[in-house]
Specification:
Blueprint lengths: L1 E8 L8 E8 L4 E5 L6 H8 L6 E6 L2 E2 L7 E4 L13 H6 L14 H13 L15 H15 L3 E5 L7 H16 L3 E5 L6 H4 L2 E6 L1 E7 H4 L2 H8 L1 H7 L1
Parallel strand pairs: 3-8, 3-9, 6-7, 7-8
Antiparallel strand pairs: 1-2, 1-4, 4-5, 9-10
The structure holds adenosine-5'-triphosphate.
Adenosine-5'-triphosphate binds next to helix 1.
InterPro entries: AAA+_ATPase, ABC_transporter-like_ATP-bd, ABC_transporter-like_CS, Metal_Ion_Import_ABC, P-loop_NTPase
Protein name: Iron/zinc/copper transport system ATP-binding protein
GO molecular function: ATP binding; ATP hydrolysis activity
Length: 239
């Protein structure tokens, strides 16, 4: 279903920050991308999506990336997003429709109904006319998930979506991501909190510049791989 072949990224042209990473996942899944600070997790996503120069390729449902761009959604790390941009929650979600519109095509009533239905799903309807700058981190993250919903993306990348957000938002987001997975979508999440790995992910990718291990969480999130990824001290502390 998802096949990633030999991704390689170097920012300075000398050392690889992501070093020949390949993996495949053959079922719709919630996939955690795990690794220590600076392991190249965010860079791997950007490299897979060709948002930065990279070597290697990604195939989804047998198609190369360039043939299925409209189906891909990418939610950046919060720190990389301009919160102060003056748009409302509704307008922000509507941006997910743009890949499907013709040039200069205006949004119809039906489009706005789609936007409101997505906001309903992430329990943000009552905030629909607020400026995005007035939201909490968790509420904003829910709005960004609603945007992927209207886009009808089937391959979704989220970079640290749970950092600094409230427990209610985290639960709402996890519930909706699980429903995406149950509908046949693939969701890849860069994630920090090792305590929730078993609970959150069907599959994991463990990396530190190079791929350390990948596969179903139960078999892959084991002490030898944790030590291989994070070092002996953390490996022994977690298990
Ligand atoms: N635009 C950039 N230019 C140069 N080096 C970069 C750039 N972005 C990231 N790096 C470097 O690449 C390496 C991998 O960074 P990346 O952000 O992908 O790691 P990460 O695993 O996502 O880290 P974290 O968990 O701390 O967010 C780091 O050494 C980082 O300093």
């Amino acid at each position: 279903m998802l096949e990633v072949k030999d991704i390689e990224v170097s920012y300075d042209g000398i050392t690889n920050v992501v070093d020949h990473v390949s993996f495949s996942i053959d079922r719709p899944a919630l996939v955690g991308i795990l690794g220590p600070n600076g392991a190249g997790k965010s860079t791997l996503i950007k490299g897979m999506l060709k948002l930065i120069p990279s070597k290697g390729e990604l195939f989804f449902r047998g198609q190369p990336l360039k043939k299925m761009q409209k189906e891909v959604a990418y939610v950046e790390q919060k720190s990389a997003i301009d919160y102060t941009f003056p748009i409302t929650v509704r307008e922000c979600v509507s941006l997910g429709l743009y890949p499907k519109l013709r040039l200069m095509q205006k949004l119809t009533k039906k489009h706005w109904q789609q936007v409101d239905a997505a906001l309903e799903k992430v329990k943000m309807v009552e905030y629909k006319n607020r400026q995005i700058g007035e939201l909490s981190g968790g509420q904003f993250q829910r709005v960004l998930i609603a945007r992927t919903l209207v886009q009808e993306a089937s391959l979704i990348f989220l970079d640290e979506p749970f950092v600094g957000i409230d427990a209610t938002s985290e639960k709402i987001i996890m519930d909706i991501l699980r429903s995406f997975r149950d509908e046949g979508k693939m969701i890849m999440i860069v994630h920090h909190d090792l305590g929730k790995v078993d609970h959150y992910f069907d599959e994991i990718i463990m990396m530190d510049k190079k791929l350390i291990a990948y596969g179903p969480t139960k078999e892959t999130f084991v002490q030898s791989n944790i030590i291989g990824t994070y070092g002996a001290a953390l490996g022994l502390g977690v298990l």
